[in-house]
Amino acid sequence: MTTLILTNFCLPQKANADIVDKIVAQVGNEIVTQHDVERFAPARVRAINAIKNEDERKLKWDAYYSETLDTIIDNLTLQVAAARIGIATTDKEIQDTLIRLQDRNSSLRGLISQILAREKRLTPELTFIAKNGIIRNKLLSAMLNRAIITEEDLHDFLQQGSAYKAGVEYCVELAFFDSQVQYDKLKKNKKDFKGAVESVGGTYVDMDWVRLEDVSPELRSAVAQTDEGKLSSPLTDVSGKVAVVRVVGVRASRYIPDSVRRDVTYVLMEQQMEYIFSAWYDRQKQSIVVYRFQ
Fold first, then answer.
1. Widest Cα–Cα separation across the chain
2. Which of 100, 145, 199, 272 is the most exposed, fewest CB within 10 Å of its CB?
3. Nearest-5° angle of CA 23, CA 28, CA 30?
């Protein structure tokens, strides 16, 4: 956003009742007058006017004027940028938004209530808050199609201090033997696990990565009690057949429940939309010329 200070405009030490409608700023083709600044928050202006000490009054007025003009310029800049892509608001949208924000638990609810209590009526300040809130939401929605969430994005988010704690997955190999004799031979065999199982006549099964909740209770217990790289104690059925578990590795589960996936995707979409919006808005501001007349 290019800002130009063009003239020497002397501010009054005290805001007069008869407001001089002088142009104090321009944002694109939008004009800001002294009237706009003084009527932005009338109760604050009245409070400043009531200060008897001239130096204090001037100090308060200068602070109010600077803060309010910055706010108006910032709001108009967003409106000008939005208008470039056909986004605007209607009076009915603004009125409905103010009503809704007072009725709901919103981050703006307290601010709006505070302004209404101070001013006792609808002010340009409230209108700006509602109007820019609507425009910002419309802009964020327009950025929605540009946001892309990948599987890795989900897992990265969940591993970075998320309230959701991922479960554990185990890389598991199984071996089945017809008898205790075959199993005893396995323990003496120094080959790799698969080769050792097959060399003594056993059956080897690579289960790859599994979650405990996806396997039988017996297997679940054996896996949970076996350290990584170790063999479990033998599991023997009533017929005398023996099974043994080898835990090859342990890692955080890659499985994400549907409810968690939905919630995390929503959060990440919001973050991406904010980033996309900020980048877009920064580019827009660079081409919107702002004049300040002082």
1. 106
2. 145
3. 45
Residue 102 contacts residue 130 (beta carbons within 8 Å): no
> Which backbone phi and psi does 184 adopt, to 5 degrees?
-60, -35
**Residue 287 DSSP SS3:** coil
Q: Calculate the alpha carbon distances from 6 to 23, 25, 34, 193, 292 in Å.
A: 11, 9, 16, 82, 6
Overall pTM surpassing 0.85 (yes/no) = no
**What is the per-residue pLDDT across 86-96, written as a single tens digit (0 to 9) for each?**
998 888 887 77
Q: Give 21-44 pLDDT, tens digit per residue.
A: 789 999 999 999 988 998 888 888
Q: How many residues does the chain have?
A: 294
What are the tens digits of pLDDT across the range 59-98? 999 999 999 999 999 999 999 999 998 998 888 887 777 7
Give the Cα separation of 30 and 36 in Å (integer).
12
Backbone angles phi, psi at 93, to 5 degrees: -60, -40
Q: CA-CA distance, 260 to 272, in Å (whole number)?
A: 18
> Cα–Cα distance between 9 and 18 in angstroms, integer?
17
Q: What are phi and psi of 95, to 5 degrees?
A: -65, -45
Degrees to nearest 5, angle at CA 20 with 17 and 25: 125
Q: Token pair for residue 5? A: 């200070």
Instruction: Give how far the C-alpha of residue 44 lies from the chain's centroid of Cα atoms, to the nearest Å.
Output: 34
Alpha helices for 84-179 (secondary structure H): 91-103, 109-119, 124-142, 151-159
Q: Token match 């199982």: residue?
A: 197
Nearest to 1 by CA among 291, 285, 294: 285
Contact 265, 149 (CB under 8 A): yes
CB neighbourhood size of 287 (10 A): 12
Query: What's the rounded Cα separation, in Å, for the pair 66 and 164?
Result: 45
Burial class of residue 83, CB neighbours in 10 A (0-12, 13-18, 19+)? middle
CB 51 within 8 A of CB 57: yes
